[in-house]
Write a structure and sequence with these properties.
The complex is a heterodimer of chains A (268) and B (296). Helix content of chain A is 75%, strand content 0%. With 268 residues, chain A is an all-alpha fold. Chain A contains 14 helices and no strands. The longest helix of chain A is centred in the first third of the chain and has 34 residues. Chain B is an all-alpha fold and 296 residues long. Chain B has a single domain, classed as MetI-like fold (Orthogonal Bundle), CATH 1.10.3720.10. Chain B contains 12 helices and 2 strands, in the order αββααααααααααα. The model of chain B has no long low-confidence stretch (mean pLDDT 83). Classes of the chains: A mainly alpha (268), B mainly alpha (296). At the A-B interface, α1, α4, α5, α6 and α7 of A face α1, α3, α4, α5 and α6 of B.
Chain lengths: 268, 296
């Protein structure tokens, strides 16, 4: 398509507006509280990394960051692993109740976390998982497993069925075919799915904070403390906020070319 | 899709998924159903209460009913406004993205970034950004002489929540539309050029029909997400001023945890959940039917 000046201008304008709040957060995080309260400044006149240093030397913050990354990692591995065979089955076979099952899985994507917060608390308390990373990792399976099935099903559909048949004729047993031949073929899809599981587990906070109290408090929940501790510690809050964006910004770079296909649930 | 072989052993492949999702879905769901027909007096002291929570809830003349109806209307209006802005804006920006060149990668990363920020941090960002004293947005609007105050003025609160959602989720629509646009073969555009079609005609007759599928996904996802919105308004406005931005899920948590009124909250959860399910089911069915009719 031809590209005029106007679309380019609109795009740049949009990108700038999009980044403005993020820039403002960064700006805040590099200033001291007294500096912030003394007036607006479009950029930090005396930038300081004081708050970042404070965060990295406080065990509560560091622990929170570790906790967040741990439950996200567990959730991603579990979701992708259980979703792979299911996605294959949904794409390749008819079986009793397949359509209903698929739609039921989708309905769990639509379950408002606020509906489940209270019963989840009771359930995980009863089975003794409350305040562990496993509680959060399992709870996030509620929406991440269906999401993974949905996305992977789209990618599985992109592999011609002749490959399955040829492998069977060549004498591959099913597990060997699935692990050796099939998984490498949908490696992109697996990467994209893992990214989405990472993303939705990383950004979800309502369940994560409901299911934890002190041992497994996620990073973003530790932030809430800086509200009450000493009035409003704006620059601390801003610095912590900036840090929560880093993991997302890092992983997104690796999947940038496939991300759109992932959002389309593998259906473009 | 019709030539898939029948094989009920495929159930074994689905079993792990079923176990994981059932654990996190059926047990809590049954707990909610259980609460919804009981009244609690203190801890672990429940009474059978039949369907009276539901009757209260669905009758706007009662206190609970009025509250529920109010939150429901606000949530619908919010979903509608957010979608009405995000879908056209998303398509527009996607059309502005270059189809090739070095700028695509960085642009996509920047566009996707807001979606990777934890939701309460999104709230924090805007809480700071919208303040009149230390926030650029609030200060700029006040500087222009507008009456803007998120915590005091309902209109400001509403505008802010909508802007936050647009900021946060238009990228989803952009990425989907962009993926859809990229799938259009160049030959279509060449044909349009030969016919000397106008830009509008190209959009109307080539691009929009080709985008239909991804737009369905976008509308579906965005409806679900806007209807469930919780974290951002809680952080920025706390549901206020008054009840102005108390959407369904916020009201739900207020009742369940704030007032420990489990029966009412559970009944409300179920009605809320059924609305979402129905909405999505209708939408999903209509769209698959349309697809089938066009294909045949």
């Amino acid at each position: 398509m031809r590209q005029g000046i106007l679309p380019r201008f609109a795009l740049v304008l949009y990108l700038v507006l999009l980044m403005l709040p993020v820039y403002w957060l960064l700006n805040m995080s590099l200033r001291t509280n007294t500096d912030i309260m003394s007036g607006l400044a479009l950029w930090p006149h005396e930038p300081t990394l004081e708050k970042y240093r404070a965060i990295f030397s406080d065990p509560a913050w560091v622990h929170g960051f570790g906790v967040s990354l741990t439950y996200v990692a567990i959730n991603t591995v579990v979701s992708v692993t259980v979703a792979l065979p299911a996605a294959y089955a949904f794409n390749r076979y008819h079986f009793i109740g397949d359509k209903h099952l698929f739609f039921w899985l989708l309905t769990n994507l639509m379950a408002p976390a606020s509906v489940f917060a209270m019963p989840f608390f009771n359930l995980y308390y009863a089975v003794g998982l409350f305040d562990t990373v496993w509680a959060v990792a399992l709870a996030h399976c509620l929406f991440n497993v269906p999401l993974a099935v949905w996305i992977l099903e789209g990618f599985v559909g992109g592999v011609p069925r002749e490959i399955d048949e040829t492998a069977a004729i060549d004498g591959y047993s099913f597990p060997r075919f699935f692990l050796r031949l099939f998984l490498p073929l949908i490696a992109n899809g697996i990467g994209v799915t893992a990214f989405f599981c990472f993303m939705f587990s990383w950004v979800e906070q309502l369940l994560a904070t409901t299911l934890t109290s002190s041992n497994a408090l996620p990073f973003a929940a530790v932030m809430t403390r800086s509200y009450s501790a000493s009035g409003m510690d704006w620059s601390m809050l801003a610095a912590a906020g900036v840090l929560t964006m880093v993991p997302g910004a890092v992983v997104i770079w690796f999947v940038r070319n496939h991300i759109a296909k992932g959002f389309a649930l593998g259906r473009v | 899709m019709t030539d898939k072989p029948w094989n009920n052993r495929a159930w074994f492949f689905v079993l792990p998924v079923l176990i994981f999702v059932l654990f996190s879905s059926i047990v809590p769901m049954m707990t909610v159903v259980n609460y919804s027909v009981q009244d609690s007096m203190g801890v672990n002291n429940f009474f059978w209460n039949g369907d009276s929570w539901f009757r209260d809830l669905l009758d706007p003349s009662t206190e609970m009913g009025a509250r529920f109806a109010g939150a429901l209307v606000r949530t619908f209006v919010f979903s509608f406004v957010a979608l009405a802005i995000e879908i056209p804006l998303g398509i527009g920006i996607a059309l502005c993205l270059p189809r090739r060149g070095w700028a695509i990668g960085p642009s996509l990363v920047v566009i996707a970034l807001p979606m990777l920020i934890p939701w309460n941090v999104v709230g924090t960002i805007w809480q700071i950004f919208a303040r009149q004293d230390i926030g650029l947005f609030g200060a700029a609007l006040t500087g222009l002489g507008l009456h803007y105050n998120v915590t005091q003025d309902p209109t400001s609160a509403w505008i802010t929540i909508v802007i936050i959602d647009v900021w946060h989720w238009t990228p989803l629509v952009i990425l989907l539309s962009y993926a859809g646009l990229r799938a259009i073969p160049d030959a279509y555009y060449q044909a349009a050029r030969i016919d000397a079609a106008s830009r509008w005609a190209v959009f109307r007759n080539i691009e929009l029909p080709r985008l239909r599928k991804v737009l369905v996904i976008a509308v579906l996802l965005r409806f679900m997400q806007t209807f469930m919105i919780y974290t951002e308004p809680v952080v920025v406005t706390g549901g206020g001023p008054g009840n102005a931005t108390t959407f369904l899920s916020i009201d739900l948590v207020k009742i369940a945890i704030g007032q420990v009124d489990l029966g009412n909250a559970a009944a409300m959860s179920l009605v809320y959940y059924l609305i979402i399910l129905t909405g999505c089911y209708v939408f999903y069915t209509v769209m698959t039917q349309l697809d089938r009719r066009r294909d045949s």
